[in-house]
Amino acid sequence: MDRLEHVTIHGVDLPVYSCNTVVVGSGAAALNGADRLYNLGQKDVVIVTEGMKMGTSRNTGSDKQTYYKLTLSGNTPDSIWEMAQTLYDGGCMDGDIALVEAALSSQAFYHLVDIGVPFPHNQFGEFIGYKTDHDPRQRATSAGPLTSKFMTEKLETQVEQKNIPVFDGYQVIAILTDEQQGQAVGVLCLNLAEQDNDKERYLILNCRNVIYATGGPAGIYATSVYPPSQTGATGIAFEAGAKGKNLTESQYGLASIKFRWNLSGTYQQVLPRYVSTDLDGNDEQEFLVDYFSDPGKMLDAVFLKGYQWPFDPKKVKDFGSSLIDILVYNETVIKGRRVFLDFMANPTWGSVDGQLDFDLLSEESYTYLSKSHALFGTPIERLMHMNQPAIELYSTNGIDLTTEYLEIAVCAQHNNGGLDGNHWWESNLKNFFPVGEVNGSHGVYRPGGSALNAGQVGSTRAAQFIAARYQEAPLPLDQFVQTISTQVQNKIQLGQDFLAKLGTTSTVLDIRQQIGERMTKKGAHIRSLEEAKVGASEAQQQLQRLVDETVITSATELAYCFQNYDLLLTQYVYLSAIVDFIAEGGTSRGSYLVYDANGDLPLAFLAEEFRFSLSNDQSFQKRIQRVSMKNGECKFQWDPVRALPEEDSWFENVWNDYLNDKIIK
User: CB within 8 A of 539, min separation 6: which ones?
Assistant: First the structure.
């Protein structure tokens, strides 16, 4: 069979490429899936991506980007079961998923080491670890600020060496299924280089399997630390029948916005000065002073933001570190001001003649800085001493921390929820494997760096299952065309409707901005039932009006039109999930605050919308919200969390099952 053929669907000539597996995406999870599948013997695999250099894996990080795995150094005891228990205890994480992520963490990590990712080890070969957030051990490691970039680059080299075909510059706009929406059979793509060519505008991939690694739904937020190249494509998965899981659970935290980057770790531990200004950069104020009871508590809260980086309602009261996030939000969103970090000078409150009084610090903060030999100077001098690459990172992106302020906001950073998958990462939509951030394997709380592990483990498991069970060729071309004809026709017609709206002034970016502002205000880290209801309704209505509201100046904007379509689908489902969660009795948890009229304000003089309560009801930690979308409406189900499995681990029995091919099922 020729790989590339042409078919006619409702009068449109379309190229069709046939293969066993299509990997959608070009981040660390996607590339690992293709690499693993090839190594396992299934070489009939292709990658399709909007751009090999795009996405979160290649374009994001922090002061010391963390990778989470089993302890691989020292004399501190650890085990697969203990790591699984840590993941499971985060709440709303199925036990079988937690056990797999723990069990394969070493294998996934050492694979990255073997292909050249520079994780540090000592002279004896131990990969030394450190403690990250929600981590009772020292399982974290790092290759520096660009850990995931290094991973992606090394995995891309593996793909290149194997000559795995890559359709670079193709945007997936539909997941094609059988008539019952029970099985994925292919994908429909927009050729980004040929949007204005009606002969080459689209490409269909006919496949047996789809490994879907499109990342988190970054485009639904306006205030985001996701790189601009990351948009997400979760909506078309919902459209195809894939279920969502834990969609309410995302992480938010302080980040720079001119150059998008997490401001965790050393950026906070050097105790920078927090200032706000009006929109023109005037009326400078060290606003934290107005809210803390004494300078020591303020400095400790800033310090703790380093490794308590995600916003957490449990860390708001009693001047906890997450009060900082609320105060930044209060300045930027409620007051309409701008907020900056100043590394050039010490906080005025707590300093004498410009020199910080380190004796004001708690024992934890003081000891850390003392052991780091950093009880001196200004924040930038301490940062130079403790983490010079953190300064160079901004310098290479046009920001000189030695001479200028760094503008910040509370930003969306990671989606712990996403598409549902079993312990082989297969969706309810058969032959469809969401991996990486688009997969909702995480629960409410997760250790820092566990997402990178989950992406490597999930794509490995998907490859293992495909290689063992889904080796068949894709559908014969005539049967495939008959199956997907109506789906393709409908999506191409949507494209034609957009193309018919040519004008002199484009509205696509305005629509994108409206989508982002809606989610940031109604579905980010500050939430309420009423606002979420309004947001879900607005998203649904805007989706219905999308063609009417859209005006493009040329066919080259068609990609943005399809992205807006996907983002509105995604936003509608996500906001609907938030509505359902709060209506069920869900309260503040994870990385968001839910308004409760009967709750407490963090500080008496803050706005009413910050009033919240923390529930003592553990039932929500033991139930998982799943959602499916049918005919434009969301249907929710609440399932008990699956417990950690207690399998028969007697070697002879497992060996016998392994020899008789009874493991992968």
Answer: 515, 518, 568, 571, 572, 575
Average pLDDT over residues 286-314: 95
List, in order, residues 6 or more apart from 408 with CB less than 8 Å away. 254, 255, 256, 257, 263, 328, 339, 340, 341
**Which one has a higher pLDDT value, 338 or 389?**
338
Q: CA 52, CA 58: separation in Å to the nearest integer?
A: 9
Reply yes or no on whether the pLDDT at 2 is more than 80. Answer: no
SS (H, E, C) 150-216: HHHHHHHHHHHHCCCCEEECEEEEEEEECCCCCEEEEEEEEEHHHCCCCCCCEEEEEEEEEEECCCC
| pLDDT tens per residue across span 60-94 | 887 788 999 999 999 999 999 999 999 999 999 99
556-608: pLDDT as tens digits:
999 999 999 999 999 999 999 999 999 999 999 999 999 999 999 999 989 99
CB 74 within 8 A of CB 126: yes
Residue 1 pLDDT level (bands cut at 50, 70, 90) = very low
CA distance 247 to 624: 10
Q: How far apart are CA 635 and CA 48, in angstroms?
A: 31
The Cα 20–Cα 274 span in angstroms is 54
- According to DSSP, the residues that pair with 252 across neighbouring strands are 412
Report in angstroms the alpha-carbon separations of 256 from 224, 308, 460.
9, 17, 33
Rg for the chain (alpha carbons), in Å? 25
Q: Considering only CA atoms, which of 292, 302, 301, 299 is closest in space to residue 267?
A: 302
Mean pLDDT of 626-638: 96
Interatomic CA distance for residues 23 and 172, integer angstroms: 11
Q: Is 16 helix (H, G, I), strand (E, B) or coil?
A: strand
% of the chain beyond a pLDDT of 90: 94
Are residues 270 and 338 in contact, defined by beta-carbon separation less than 8 angstroms? Answer: no
How many alpha carbons lie under 13 Å from residue 327 in its C-beta half-sphere?
A: 26
- Measured in residues, the chain has a length of 665
3-state secondary structure of 412: strand
39 token code pair:
């190594």
Phi then psi for residue 570, to 5 deg, are -60, -50
Query: In 3-state terms, what secondary structure has residue 268?
Result: helix
89 by Cβ neighbours in 10 Å (0-12 / 13-18 / 19+) ranks as middle
d(CA 44, CA 62): 36
pTM value is: 0.96
Asked whether the beta carbons of 179 and 200 are under 8 A apart, the reply is no
Mean pLDDT across 109-120: 98
All domains of the chain in start order, with CATH: 4-58+145-249+416-479 (3.50.50.60), 253-412 (no CATH), 500-601 (1.20.58.100)
% pLDDT > 70, the chain? 100
Segment 528-563, tens digit of pLDDT: 999 999 999 999 999 999 999 999 999 999 999 999
Q: Which of 203, 211, 171 is nearest to 429 (CA)?
A: 211
- Looking at every residue in the chain, the average pLDDT score rounds to 96
